[in-house]
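Co-fold these.
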Amino acid sequence: MSRLLDDAGLSWRSGPCLPAWQSLSAALQRQGDCLGLRHADGAPDGPALQLMHPDLQPLQTRFTGLPALPLELSTEFTLQAACGLMSVHGRASGRLQALGVNYLATLNAALAWQGSLAAAVGQLRGGRFHEVALQPAAGALLSIGQYLAGATAPEDPEHLLPGADDALARPPFLSADGVLFELETLDSHPWRQFWNALGVSDAIAGKAWQRFLLRYARAVAPMPAECLDALAGLPLARIQAIAAECGVALVPVRDAAQRQGDSNYTASAASPWQIRRGVAAPAPHRAAPVRLPLEGIRVLESCRRIQGPWPGTCCRCSVPK
Amino acid sequence: MSVSVMVPTLLLPLTDGQKKVEAQGETVRHIIDHLDSRYPGIKARLVHQDEVHRFVNIYVNDDDIRFAAGLATSVAPGAKLTVLPAVAGG
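Predicted complex below.
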């Protein structure tokens, strides 16, 4: 089988897609560069990402809209609003709030690349995969799938609309000298020690732990007032010392400009992927894929716990036509 | 006395797919032992050397047992015991 990413033969181009959403085109470009792919001249006649390689038949991922949200009106912010991201993000701030980055552009660009490359692999395996359809709105819904599941569960559905909790009683935390910071630990023992050292009782620390654990599952983590008051009475340096003693990670919240000043920023902004040639796999003796381009392929994945299910979900959801 | 136990998705294969099961016992330890007698293997997924696994959280009603008496935490009749795997990251 051809190794698409090993040589310089793979190129791509995108159409004049989504005039209202230039961030998607920019994300496609950025991710194509990170993959080391060559950008070709010319353009498809619509909103699409095309892959070209001597071993491939014509292949493209076409972006499509919904009747209620045509592609021409699909911007980062209209999609965040229409698909519920602003509501989920607003659970913590107390009001509908957009994510302050081009989240859906980046996500949908990644899905477009994933679908295109999956279809390309499907072709090389003998399948007939020439066009992938991607609805940016569907990508948006995919990204909040866990919250939709919680809100529409048949038993005890969550009702976590913006404004349901005190917008000020939540992480990030605030020290007496006005520094915003985050705490992190996966273990209740250091968490308990930390709060005990601040004079917070076990009962309150336990309630805080439960809400803190569910922060990523619910997108909101209202903290007991006792915890916030304890932190607000101490300077950051003292809180840092206690956190270090107890084994709790503490990270001050910084802005983008501060991050860009770090010595490792440039390296971290380079390609996130490293692709190496592995041991040659034995030639498969399977029939060509019919329904899905990657069907029958077994993927070995190693990752941190919460990130683990995400690639698997994407693999199942990338369904070329 | 009987309590309700809410089973996380990861353990559903051990409870024949039941999300909510009934168990007997006066402490969390007794309840887990009783659960294991009905659903063999579940105790090993929750407890190691008489300690709750590090990334498993058990609540009696809304209270985390680690912030009470651990496995010795008493459970009143009719209480709800919830098993919740830890989740973090972003």
